[in-house]
Design goal:
Strand order of the largest sheet: 5-6-3-9-10
Structural class: alpha+beta
InterPro entries: YcnI-copper_dom, YcnI-like_sf
Number of helices: 2
CATH class of the largest domain: Mainly Beta
Keywords: Membrane, Signal, Transmembrane, Transmembrane helix
Number of domains: 2
Number of strands: 11
Distance between the termini: 119 Å
CATH topology of the largest domain: Immunoglobulin-like
Order of helices and strands: HEEEEEEEEEEEH
Strand content: 25-35%
């Protein structure tokens, strides 16, 4: 019985070990805000026996992202692809000869980019990713159950209310200053009149 359980656990671990090595999206800074700009790092493993020579990340054009800047990565050439209106549709990294991502579960690479403005009408940004292999094959991470697309969680804009309150307060400052000056002028004028009349009486 014990031997059976050990074998079962071993088979479960071996069966799920490769599934753990998904392409994932990380946000090294604070979580990106809706409507703002954010930095995303895609961690790409290579579960295949051959090298990965190119990575392509699809940016859904419906989100209207117009800026994408890649983080320098030694041995890889980045390319930002755009559609009508300058909307970013994809970001690619192509390996120089000798810099390919080697095959095997022990190998991975991080691909970083900063982009925006991020959509304000969704809670998550899905980034379908494709690995191009040295033998001409591809591995698509596009929301299939066994190869899900990397997802970035977007947060609500922070401090929107505070900024509005500060702006309103700043707008009120000139009026407060004017009112104070007017009040001071009235006090001085009344005081001057009373002093003048007092001198006339004496």
């Amino acid at each position: 019985m014990i031997r059976f359980l050990v074998c079962s656990v071993a088979m479960f671990v071996l069966g799920t070990g490769t599934a753990v090595a998904h392409v994932t999206a990380h946000t090294p800074d604070s979580p990106p805000e809706k409507g703002g700009y954010g930095t995303v790092v895609l961690r790409v493993p290579n579960e295949e026996t051959v090298a990965t020579t190119r990575i392509e990340v699809t940016i859904p054009p419906a989100h209207g992202i117009t800026t994408a800047r890649t983080r320098p990565l030694t041995g890889w050439i980045p390319t930002v692809r755009r559609g009508p209106g300058g909307v970013v549709t994809a970001v690619e990294w192509t390996a120089r000869p000798g810099s390919e991502l080697a095959g095997g579960d022990a190998h991975y690479e991080d691909f970083g980019l900063t982009m925006g403005p991020l959509p304000s009408d969704v809670d998550t940004l899905v980034l379908p990713t494709t690995q191009f292999l040295a033998n001409g094959g591809t591995v698509a991470w596009n929301d299939q159950p066994d190869r899900p697309a990397p997802v970035v969680t977007l947060t609500e804009p922070s401090g929107a209310g505070h900024h509005g309150e500060r702006a309103a307060s700043a707008a009120n400052v000139p009026w407060i200053a004017v009112a104070s000056l007017v009040g001071l002028s009235v006090v001085l004028a009344v005081g001057g009149v009373l002093l003048f009349r007092r001198r006339e009486i004496s």
